[in-house]
Write a structure and sequence with these properties.
Layout (H helix, E strand, L loop, with lengths): L8 E6 L4 H13 L2 E6 L4 H10 L6 H7 L5 H9 L5 E7 L10 H17 L1 E2 L6 E7 L20 E3 L6 H8 L10 H20 L7 H7 L2 H15 L1 E3 L1 E2 L4 H6 L10
Parallel strand pairs: 1-2, 1-3, 3-5
Antiparallel strand pairs: 4-5, 5-8, 6-7
Length: about 260
């Protein structure tokens, strides 16, 4: 974790070719990151099926270069860059890929995602990368009434409503155009989601210490807590984990985390 270089290039592997790309481009521009974005044009469960067929014995760039869903433009990005300093994978939970009226299907979908999170756990390894799951999807970054909304603590979505989530966010979320988000806006969103991650794992609405974040607000522990809520209560705690990349990229070097 952490980077002292401003000229390193990171690879962002995202689900779609529109909303995720716009979000990551704006995030990268705000924090002055050098990036390339590749869209797999498939949800996490489709990707899982492909990777499982390879017994998870692959380099992620090779899989992307062989995928018919990845555009030639994006493949050229992979061919032109021999190695990326950091590799991030950003996906939605996408349980609607399955028949969510059947609990066994829900369990199967959750198990697939858990296996992916456990495998993709190192952003410094360009053959693998680190996966971030958004709950329930990327639009969660604006599912709040302000850039730091105290009510985000209890912001949930019923599992049965996930197919309508974009419409729901359109009615109750921030309406500010993404292009107008400032550095302070993003910092507020990061902090709000850190508070929420801490609340999900530790039951505390507040910013965790950096060591607590590293040890406990991890993708796998957040996922385990979300899974229990999904299975037992059929609800998802709204959380945007892709914003945690801002924390993981810098770490607490020069007190970056402490000063958020």
């Amino acid at each position: 974790m952490g980077s002292s270089q401003t000229n390193v290039k990171s690879l962002f592997i995202v689900e779609g070719a529109d909303r995720e790309v716009k979000f990551i481009k704006k995030l990268a521009k705000t924090f002055n990151w050098g990036i390339e974005i590749v869209s797999v044009c498939a949800n996490i469960h489709m990707l899982y099926t492909k990777l499982k067929a390879e017994d998870f014995n692959f380099e992620i760039k090779s899989i992307l270069l062989e995928s018919p869903n990845v555009s030639e433009t994006d493949k050229d990005k992979l061919r032109s860059e021999k190695n990326f300093a950091y590799t991030y994978l950003i996906f939605d939970l996408d349980l609607q890929h399955y028949d969510i009226s059947d609990e066994e299907n829900i369990r199967r979908g959750l198990n697939d995602v858990k296996e992916m999170i456990r495998y993709f756990n190192d952003e410094t390894d360009s053959t693998v990368g680190k996966m971030y799951i958004n709950y329930p999807m990327i639009e969660s970054y604006r599912d709040c009434s302000s850039f730091f909304d105290e009510e985000f603590k209890t912001r949930m979505i019923n599992l049965s409503d996930i197919t309508s989530y974009k419409t729901i966010v359109g009615k109750r979320g921030i309406n500010t155009n993404l292009s107008k988000y400032t550095t302070e806006n993003f910092k507020d969103l990061v902090c709000m989601n850190l508070f929420k991650g801490n609340y999900i794992y530790n039951g505390i609405w507040g910013k965790p210490t950096y060591s607590n974040y590293v040890d406990n607000i991890s993708q796998d522990k957040i996922f385990d807590n979300q899974s229990l809520k999904i299975l037992n209560e059929k609800i998802i705690s709204v959380l945007n984990c892709s914003l945690f990349i801002v924390v993981d990229y810098y770490g607490n070097q020069n007190f970056h985390y402490d000063n958020l």
